[in-house]
Design a protein that fits this description.
The chain has 418 residues and is mainly alpha-helical. It has 14 helices and no strands. Its main location: membrane.
Length: 418
C-alpha cells in the first residue's frame, strides 16, 4: 500500500486538474463565443466522448499495459491544454472542440485503467481500502477544483488556469511513470485470443450468468440521472434560498458531501478490516436508496442544519455505494475486468449526460424539488426492485463465494469455446 498512497496523491492532483479544467473551459467557451449554445455544445461533445470512450477504453485496457495507458492519457491532456495555451487567440475557439474530445476520452480511459488495476496493484484483499482512498482523494480534489477555479480565472486569467491544468496532468503522469507497480496480471496465450474471449465472456456474463451485475450497472446509470438532476438544480435552488449570496449553500453542500465521502471511506475500511468481509449487492442497493433519499431531502426547503445533515448522509452513502460497487466489479478476472469497467463507464456517463439535458429542460417548468425527487425517486424504485430480487434469492452471498462464481463463469465460457 505504500506505493499506492503515492498513486492516490497523483490521481488526486490529476482529478483536481480535471475539475478545474471543467469549470475554466466551460466559462472560457462562453466568454470567447458569447453563446450559451456553443457552451452547451462543448459540454455535449465532451459527454458524448465520455460515453463512446467507455467502450473503446474497455478494449484498450484488456489488451495493453494499463500503466502506460494512464501515463499516456495524462500526457495527452497536458499536451492538448498546452496547445490551447500557445495557440493564437483566433484559433482557440476552433481547438476547444478537439480539446473536449481529447479530455473526455482520456479521462474515461484513465478511470477505467485505474479501476481495473486496483486488485493487481494492492492485492484483491486490500481493494476495498484502496477504493476508499481513491474516493477520498477524488472528493477532496473536486472541492478544491470547484472552489479555486473561479479565483484562478478571476485573478490570474484563462492562460494561467490552462497552464495549471496542464501542470497537474504532468505531475500525475510523472508519479505514475516512476512508481514500480504492476497493473496487469500475468497472461498466457495470444493477446488476440484473450481479447476475443473477454468480449464474448462479458456479453454472456451480462445476459445470462450474472444478471445481478447487470442490474447493478443499470442502477449506476440511473444514479447518473439523479446525480445530474441535483447538479443542475443546485444553483437554482441556492439562488432561491439566498438571491444575494447564491454560492453560500452550494459551497456548504459540496463541502459537507465531501466530508460524508471521507467518513464513508473510514467506516467501510474499518468494518472490512474487522470483519474480513466485503459488503455485497444488498449493501449496495440499500446504500443507493439512502443516497438518493438524502439528496431529495436536501431540496425540501429545510433549515440549514437539517439540510447540511442530509447532505452529509447523502455524501456518506454516495461514497459507500461507489466503494462497494467498484469492489464488486473488481472480483471479475483480470482479463475481463477492463471491458466490464468500460461498459460501466459508458452506462454511468450516458445516464449523467441524458440527465443533464432532460433535467435542464424540466427545470423550466418544475421546481428543483420536483425534478430531483423524480430522478432520484426512479433510482430508489430500481434499487428497491434489486433488493427484493436479492432477498428472494437469499440475500447477499459471501464475497469469497462471489469471487469463485465469477471465476467459474469465465472458465465455463472459455471451455465452451475450446
Amino acid at each position: 500500500m505504500r506505493y499506492f498512497r503515492l498513486l492516490v496523491l497523483g490521481n488526486g492532483i490529476s482529478a483536481y486538474g480535471s475539475y478545474l479544467n471543467m469549470v475554466a473551459l466551460n466559462v472560457f467557451v462562453y466568454d470567447a463565443t458569447g453563446s450559451a449554445l456553443a457552451a452547451g455544445l462543448f459540454m455535449t461533445v465532451r459527454l458524448a466522448t465520455n460515453v463512446v470512450s467507455g467502450w473503446v477504453s474497455g478494449r484498450l485496457v484488456s489488451v495493453h499495459d494499463r500503466k502506460r495507458l494512464m501515463v499516456g492519457a495524462d500526457l495527452c491532456q497536458a499536451l492538448a491544454l498546452l496547445s490551447l495555451l500557445l495557440a493564437p487567440d483566433g484559433m482557440r475557439v476552433g481547438l476547444l472542440y478537439a480539446l473536449a474530445v481529447i479530455t473526455g476520452g482520456c479521462s474515461t480511459l484513465s478511470q477505467v485503467s485505474l479501476r481495473s488495476s486496483i486488485p493487481e496493484i494492492v492485492g484483491a484483499e486490500h481493494r476495498v481500502r484502496a477504493n476508499g482512498l481513491l474516493v477520498t482523494g477524488r472528493s477532496l480534489a473536486m472541492i478544491a477544483g470547484f472552489a479555486s477555479s473561479g479565483l484562478v480565472v478571476a485573478k490570474l486569467g484563462y492562460s494561467a488556469a490552462f497552464a495549471l491544468d496542464a501542470a497537474t496532468f504532468l505531475v500525475s503522469a510523472t508519479v505514475l511513470f516512476l512508481l514500480p507497480v504492476r497493473t496487469k496480471a500475468a497472461t498466457t496465450g495470444t493477446g488476440s485470443a484473450d481479447s476475443s474471449d473477454a468480449a464474448r465472456w462479458t456479453a454472456r456474463m451480462l445476459l445470462g450468468t450474472a444478471p445481478v451485475l447487470m442490474a447493478m450497472i443499470a442502477v449506476r446509470a440511473v444514479d447518473g440521472l439523479g446525480s445530474s438532476s441535483h447538479n443542475v438544480a443546485l444553483p437554482i435552488y441556492s439562488s432561491g434560498l439566498d438571491p444575494d449570496h447564491p454560492a453560500t449553500f452550494i459551497s456548504q453542500f459540496w463541502a459537507t458531501w465531501a466530508i460524508g465521502n471521507i467518513v464513508a471511506q473510514q467506516v467501510i475500511g474499518r468494518v472490512t478490516k474487522k470483519s474480513g468481509r466485503t459488503p455485497g449487492e444488498r449493501a449496495f442497493a440499500l446504500g443507493a436508496c439512502v443516497m438518493s433519499a438524502g439528496f431529495i431531502v436536501v431540496f425540501c426547503g429545510l433549515p440549514t442544519v437539517p439540510a447540511v445533515i442530509a447532505a452529509l448522509i447523502a455524501g456518506a452513502a454516495d461514497g459507500f455505494t461507489e466503494i462497494v460497487y467498484v469492489s464488486r466489479l473488481q472480483t471479475a478476472p483480470d482479463e475481463q475486468r477492463g471491458r466490464l469497467f468500460g461498459l460501466s463507464a459508458s452506462a454511468e456517463n450516458t445516464g449523467f449526460g441524458l440527465g443533464m439535458l432532460v433535467s435542464g429542460a424540466l427545470l423550466e417548468a418544475f421546481s428543483p424539488l420536483q425534478v430531483v425527487a423524480a430522478f432520484h425517486g426512479l433510482a430508489i424504485a430500481l434499487c428497491l426492485a434489486l433488493l427484493l430480487v436479492l432477498l428472494r434469492r437469499g440475500g447477499t452471498r459471501d464475497p469469497g463465494v462471489e469471487d469463485k462464481t465469477v471465476d467459474r463463469d469465465a472458465s465455463t465460457v472459455t471451455e465452451g469455446r475450446g
